[in-house]
Amino acid sequence: MKNILVVVGSGNRNGNTDTLVESFIKGATESGHHVKKVNLNGHIQGCRGCGACQKNGHHCIIQDQMQDIYELFEAVDTLVLASPLYFWSISARLKSFINRLYAISTNDEYPQKDTFLFMTSGSKGFYAFEQAVSFYRFFIRALGWHDKGMVLAGGCDKEEGNSIIDEHYLKEAYFMGCHLK
């Protein structure tokens, strides 16, 4: 059984990104895995680059939503990062989360993790996601983590306040959740 942390960097509750990760969560929980989902809707400040975390036992001195997430992070072996594509990159919320992982990046108490990337975009085609995927790959490689898959859902839209995401992407995310090893 896996302990999975799903981090959603979208401010749109019940939007396309949320819909996509819910498919993954459904598959994972049906397969017996434990899943905790965190919406980055609280205030997460950016890393100040002060270095206090590296001198202070890997504890970030900034008191915000990240303090709760650090506690969750210790117990998970799988991390799912989810974001809409904003200007060819991940959302600022998710970027702040990733930057703040610097506090624990050199702490051996946090073991290597399996990771997934889930993204949505109104644009179609992989080229739209290139920059975000490149950043994701570099980031996980730097921490020694392992990519286990991506769902890059292009062509998403909204109509009358409702999310529109191709069923193919939802099935792909569900399948990934069902077949975690």
From TrEMBL:
Residues 3-131 form the NADPH-dependent FMN reductase-like domain. InterPro entries: Flavoprotein-like_sf, FMN-dep_NADH:Q_OxRdtase_AzoR1, FMN_Rdtase-like_dom. It comes from the Bacteria. Pfam families: FMN_red. GO terms for molecular function: oxidoreductase activity. This is Multimeric flavodoxin WrbA.
